[in-house]
Amino acid sequence: MNLVVVSNRVARGKVSEPMTGGLAAALLPVVENSGAIWVGSSGRVRDGSQKEPFVEIEALGAGALAMLDLPAAHYGGYYEGFANSALWPALHSRSDLILASQDDYGSYREVNAFMARALLRFRKPDTMFWIQDYHFLALGAELRELGVTQPVGFFLHTPWPARSVIAGVPHHGELIEAMLAYDLIGFQTSDDCENFTSYVQSDLGLAVRDGVVISRHGTTQVAVFPIGIDPEKFAQQAAKAVSHPDVSRLRRSLNGEKLAIGVDRLDYSKGLINRINAFDRMWTLQPSLARTASLLQIATPSRGAIEAYGNLQNELAKLVSDVNGRHGEVDWTPIRYLNKGFSQTVLAGLYRAAQVGVVTPLHDGMNLVAKEYVAAQNPADPGVLVLSKFAGAANELDTALLVNPHDIDGMARTIATAFSMPLAERRMRWEAMMARLRASTIQGWFADFLEALRETRSEVCASAPPLLAEPPASWPLRSVGTGAGYR
Ligand code: F6P
Predict the structure, then answer these.
(1) Ligand 1 pocket, residue 158 CB under 6 Å
(2) How far is CA 478 from CA 18, 53, 58, 324, 328, in A?
(3) pLDDT, tens digit, 9 for 90 and up, residues 263-277
(4) Would you say the CB of residue 40 lies under 6 angstroms from ligand 1?
(5) Which among 293, 368, 371, 301 is positioned nearest to 336, based on CA atoms?
(6) How are strands ordered across the β-sheet holding 356-359?
(7) Is residue 171 in contact with ligand 1, taking CB distance under 6 Å?
(8) What pLDDT is stored for residue 13 in this prediction?
(9) Whose C-alpha in 162, 178, 203, 415 is 20 to 30 A from the C-alpha of 18?
(10) What's residue 223's pLDDT?
C-alpha cells in the first residue's frame, strides 16, 4: 500500500527544533515510520502563471516530504482569508469573527484544485490519500474531478460546530456537499460527528444510516477517531530533558516556588485572556499564593497578518503587564510571558518542571498539550492538569480538574486547588489519565483510520483501472535527499 498524507503545514524539523501547531508535531513520528509521502505547503509562494506545482522533495524516515510552493495570487485569500478568517472562527463557534469575501472563497477553491493536480504525481494504483484539516475540505472532490478512484479519507483536527454556526460560512452548502466526495471523514469527538451529520441530514436533505452518508458522490463513512500521542516516548523525553539548559535554568530560578505552565498558539480559541484574568483573580482572592505560585505562559505568535490575531496579541501583552504590575514585587514576577516557540524536547522538560498544567481553551478539537503535560509528569510526584471542558481531550482526561473557561472565579479557585492538591490525589488522578493515554496512542489513531479507510473502498480498489504512475514530464521539480524514490 502507498500512502499519501496531505496537510497545509508539514513538520520539516526534528523534535529538537521549534515546531508550531499540534497537527504537524503529532503526525511527524507516525508519518516518518509509515513510509508515506507527506505533502504540504513549503511556506513559500510562487508567482505568475504557474499552472503546475513546484515541488521540493526530501527524505523523511522511510518515506518522503514533498513541499509545494502555493500560487502567490491565491495564497492570501486561501490561508489568511477563507481558511483562517471564515472557516477557523466558524469551526470554533466564533460566528462574530467570520469574515470572507467571494474572492477568498475562489482562492480557497483554487488552492484545493492546485493541490489536487500536484497529488496526481504521487498516485499509484494502490495509493490511499489521507487529507488533513480544514484547509482542504474540497480537495477530495477536486481529486475525483481529476479521475482519482483510489480511497480518499479526511480527518478534521478542529471541532465541527452546530448547524447554525457553520451556516454562517459563505458557500457552506457547496463546500460540505464537496466533502462528501471523501470515502471516510474522521472527527475528534462524537459531538463533532453528530453536528456534521445533523447538518447533512437537515440542510442537505441527505440520508445517513449507521454513520454512512449517501450522496451523489456515493457513500461517505463518518466516524470518531480521537487523536493521541506516544505517551511512553514523551515521558522518556521529559525525564531526559530535566538536564536541558533551558529547563535547569527555569528550575533554578524558581527558588522552591510552585509553577503553572500554559503553552498555546496565540489564538482567540485558546482562552488566554480568560486564563490570565483567572490568575489575576486567584492572586487577589488568595494573597498567600503571591510569591509562592507563578505562571509561565508560552504564547507562540500565529497568523499575525489577520486583524483578530494582531488585536489579541496587543490585548494579551497589555493584560499580562497590568497583572504583573498589580501583583508583582521587586523580586517576584507573577507571569513570565514568552512569545516564541520551543522544541518538543524542551517543552517536555518544562511540563515536568511545572506542578500545574493549564489548558483552558474556549473550544478545541483535541488539544495535545493536555496529553503531553500528563505524559511528561514524574510518576512519583505528578503535577495537576486544569483542563477546559470544551477541549476534545476532556472526554478522555476526565480525572483532570475540569473547568468552564468562561467562569473566571471558578477557574481561579480550581487553579488554587491544583497548587495545593495532596500527593495521593495527584497520583490517583494522574494514573487514571495515563491509562487513558496508553489506551489511545497516536500509532493506534493512525492505524485505525487507515484500516477504516481501506475498508470503505476495498471493492472499488480491486476493480480500479491501471493508472499513470509517472508525472507529466513538464512539471518543474527539485529533489533534495533520497526521497525514497520520489524524484
Ligand atoms: O487543527 C488545528 C491546526 O491545524 C493545528 O495544526 C494547529 O493547532 C494549527 O491548526 C496550525 O495552524 P497554522 O498552521 O495556521 O499555524
Answers:
(1) yes
(2) 25, 11, 9, 51, 54
(3) 999 999 999 999 999
(4) no
(5) 293
(6) 335-338, 293-300, 258-265, 356-359, 384-388, 401-403
(7) no
(8) 65
(9) 415
(10) 98
Residues identified as active-site:
157, 364
* 397-432 per-position pLDDT tens digit: 999 999 999 999 999 999 999 999 999 999 999 999
Edge-to-edge strands, sheet with 184-187: 207-209, 212-215, 218-224, 184-187, 152-155, 127-132, 2-6, 37-46, 63-71, 54-60, 477-479
Residue nearest to ligand 1 atom 6, measured at CA: 23
Nine cell digits for residue 352: 515536568
Q: Give the three-state DSSP class for 333.
A: coil
Give the residue whose CA is nearest to atom 1 of ligand 1.
Answer: 157
Tell me if 359 sits within 8 A of 391, measured CB to CB.
yes
pLDDT of residue 478: 36
Task: Determine if residue 61 is left, alpha or beta; phi over 0 gives left, psi from -120 to 50 gives alpha, anything else beta.
Answer: left
The pLDDT mean for the chain works out to: 92
Q: Read off the pTM.
A: 0.93
**N-term to C-term CA, the chain:** 19
Query: Quick check: CB of 392 below 6 Å from ligand 1?
Result: no
Count Cα atoms within 13 angstroms, Cβ side, for 144.
16
458 CA distance to ligand 1 middle (Å): 31
**For residue 340, how far is its CA from the centre of ligand 1 (angstroms)?**
16
Atom of ligand 1 nearest to the CA of 365: 1
Lowest-pLDDT range of 47-51, 82-86, 183-187, 299-303: 47-51
- Per-residue model confidence as pLDDT tens digits over 306-361: 999 999 999 999 999 999 999 999 999 999 999 999 999 999 999 999 999 999 99
